[in-house]
Design brief:
This protein has 254 residues and is an alpha/beta fold. The protein has helices at residues 2-7, 12-19, 23-30, 38-48, 53-65, 71-79, 98-105, 113-126, 144-147, 155-169, 219-235, 239-250; strands spanning 80-87, 137-143, 174-179, 193-198, 203-208, 213-216.
């Protein structure tokens, strides 16, 4: 990007004026101290008339940071108009903070610190779909036990995560529902999953596990998961009661 600016005969100040960003941010991006956001890259593409090159390179970089087995689901997720997920053990990835995601990834002793940072960055990039002008509607059902997993060495992380979850739950296109601890045996105990519905009404699902994940796109498999999700959603608390419960869980820690 710096080469493009220099070739165009633009100073950092003039370039900043054209894309409506400060000179200090231009310098930070060119030095590699700050990663450019999507809007920044879009404006750079417009100024240099690249045909979307910078945005395309960003997308390529995002994909390369994700495991190969996860990339088919990412495509489905980005095209979805509706997302439905269930998590029995932790906060869903689309609603995680950086600190919480980092704590989760660090549980894998085979990951280097650099790889953990890459995975955290990829997870935050994935969440960008919720900030689009036309975001999918996300409905998340989370087991209450996942919200009470406070440990002596992780209180600050979980407190920050629950505050973020509350902020997300109040967004118009995000619905968070808590499955109460007293629910007893339920189909969600078989594991977490997420479902995505595309604009043409087709559904795709993703099943997560300890060492990878599986994309489910056959009619029978998707039907089973939709049925389980409906069962879990019916047992979960309504939206406002769920927000109230999360606030109640937070009280002793704030």
């Amino acid at each position: 990007m710096t080469e493009r600016r220099v070739a165009a005969g633009l100073s950092q100040e003039e370039y900043g004026r054209r894309i409506h960003y400060s000179t200090s941010l231009i310098s930070a991006v060119e030095l590699g101290h700050t990663a450019p956001k999507l809007d920044f890259l879009r404006r750079a593409d417009d100024v240099f008339d690249t045909g979307g090159l910078f945005v395309a390179l960003r997308e390529l970089g995002r994909r390369e940071r994700e495991p190969v087995w996860f990339r088919p689901w990412l495509e489905a997720e980005r095209e979805a108009t509706q997302l439905r997920c269930f998590e029995p053990m932790m906060v869903p990835g689309l609603l995680q903070t950086a600190d919480y995601a980092q704590a989760v990834f660090r549980l894998d002793p085979t990951l280097t610190p650099d790889r953990v940072e890459e995975m955290v960055a990829a997870r935050l990039d994935r969440q960008a779909i919720l900030d689009r002008e036309d975001p999918p509607h996300l409905t998340a059902v989370i087991d209450e036990t996942a919200l009470r997993r406070f440990g002596e060495d992780g209180v600050d992380v979980l407190v920050g995560q629950l505050r973020h979850l509350l902020a997300c739950a109040r967004r118009p296109h995000v619905s968070v529902h808590v499955l109460p601890q007293g629910t007893g045996l339920h189909p969600g105990l078989l594991g977490p999953f997420i479902l995505g519905c595309s604009a043409d009404g087709g559904w795709t699902a993703f099943l997560d596990n300890q060492i990878g994940g599986t994309v489910v796109d056959d009619v029978e498999g998707v039907a089973v998961l939709l049925g389980r999700w409906e069962s879990l959603r019916s047992d979960a608390l309504p939206r406002q009661q769920s927000i109230g419960l999360i606030e109640e869980i937070l009280k002793p820690w704030t």
